[in-house]
């Protein structure tokens, strides 16, 4: 299946250029979509998961984070999402330091400025596709008229009254992508978004995910074990006990056609 060309967001402009492992904002006055400053997190009997982690994500940038199991990738996503608290350091989303917000303000920030794409889809089975996609709009007191357009943008136009049980795995992930983007968040967090998909479907979904996140202007962090999935990113970072470092394997250039993944890459 080809990637739908339609987007309800219009045509994006490239917001950033790269210099080594540094991100240079073309608009020097632009507020980073995400800043992590000196993040530290330990569990149990002093087990260090993250130590003095620093990371900046520009508006519109798509970054893949790879690393061995248990190294802290999911912990990092949870800290950024405000679902867990760091022992020290700051997570700053679109200029707001999450740790300095009360519970109510943190919930509002999560609803308004974050979108989530999960490996297991988390599409609600008792709601239609249009109702699933409209959920972030309802939570933010926004009109729901954008939901059908967003479904069309991910190749599911005219299917708004269908239920999740009528969809394939790839189609369910398209619904999840539409739901993550419909309220125009500043930051998308994706945890193994192709982990439950076959290679051909994964290829299509990755292309659509990148295209639609770029069109919306949202920055994206994608955690993945797949080299082929990571190849769609502007930057590939490796998380290890030594911190977060640029991958020695270059990512695909901004806006380029990424290579077709092999079956082994997407297992």
Polypeptide structure, described:
The protein has about 270 residues and is an alpha/beta fold. The chain has a domain at about 60-85 and about 100-245: P-loop containing nucleotide triphosphate hydrolases (Rossmann fold). It is built from 7 helices and 12 strands. The chain has helices at about 75-80, 105-115, 130-140, 145-155, 170-180, 200-215, 225-230; strands at about 15-20, 20-25, 35-45, 45-55, 60-65, 90-95, 95, 115-120, 185-190, 220-225, 235-240, 245. A 6-stranded mixed sheet has the order 8-9-10-5-11-12. It has a 4-stranded antiparallel sheet with strand order 4-3-6-7, with helices on one face. Helix 4 crosses helix 5. The longest helix has 18 residues, at about 200-215. The two termini are about 20 Å apart.
Summarize the SSE layout with pairings.
Blueprint: E1 16-19, E2 22-25, E3 34-43, E4 47-57, E5 62-66, H1 73-81, E6 88-93, E7 96-97, H2 103-113, E8 114-118, H3 129-139, H4 146-153, H5 169-181, E9 187-191, H6 199-216, E10 219-223, H7 227-230, E11 235-240, E12 243-246
Parallel strand pairs: 5-10, 5-11, 8-9, 9-10
Antiparallel strand pairs: 1-2, 3-4, 3-6, 6-7, 11-12
């Amino acid at each position: 299946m080809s990637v739908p060309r339609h987007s309800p967001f219009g045509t994006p402009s490239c917001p950033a250029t790269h210099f080594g492992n540094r991100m240079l904002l073309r608009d020097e006055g632009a507020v980073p979509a995400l800043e992590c400053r000196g993040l530290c997190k330990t569990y149990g009997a002093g087990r260090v998961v993250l130590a003095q982690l620093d990371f900046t994500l520009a508006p519109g940038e798509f970054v893949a984070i790879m690393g061995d199991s248990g190294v802290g990738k999911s912990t990092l996503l949870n800290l950024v999402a405000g679902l867990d608290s760091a022992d020290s350091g700051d997570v700053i989303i679109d200029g707001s330091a999450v740790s300095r917000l009360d519970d109510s303000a943190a919930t509002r920030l999560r609803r308004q400025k974050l979108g989530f794409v999960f490996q297991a889809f988390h599409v609600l089975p008792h709601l239609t596709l249009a109702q699933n996609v409209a959920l972030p709009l309802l939570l933010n007191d926004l009109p729901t008229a954008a939901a059908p357009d967003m479904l069309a943008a991910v190749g599911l136009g005219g299917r708004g009254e269908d239920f999740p049980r009528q969809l394939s795995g790839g189609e369910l992930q398209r619904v999840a992508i539409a739901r993550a983007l419909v309220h125009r968040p500043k930051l998308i967090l994706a945890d193994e978004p192709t982990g439950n998909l076959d290679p051909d479907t994964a290829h299509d979904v990755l292309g659509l995910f990148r295209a639609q996140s770029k069109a919306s202007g949202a920055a994206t962090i994608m955690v993945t074990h797949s080299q082929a999935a990571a190849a769609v990113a502007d930057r590939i970072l490796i998380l290890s006990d030594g911190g977060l470092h640029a991958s020695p394997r270059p990512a695909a250039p901004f806006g380029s056609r990424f290579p077709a993944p092999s079956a082994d890459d997407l297992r």
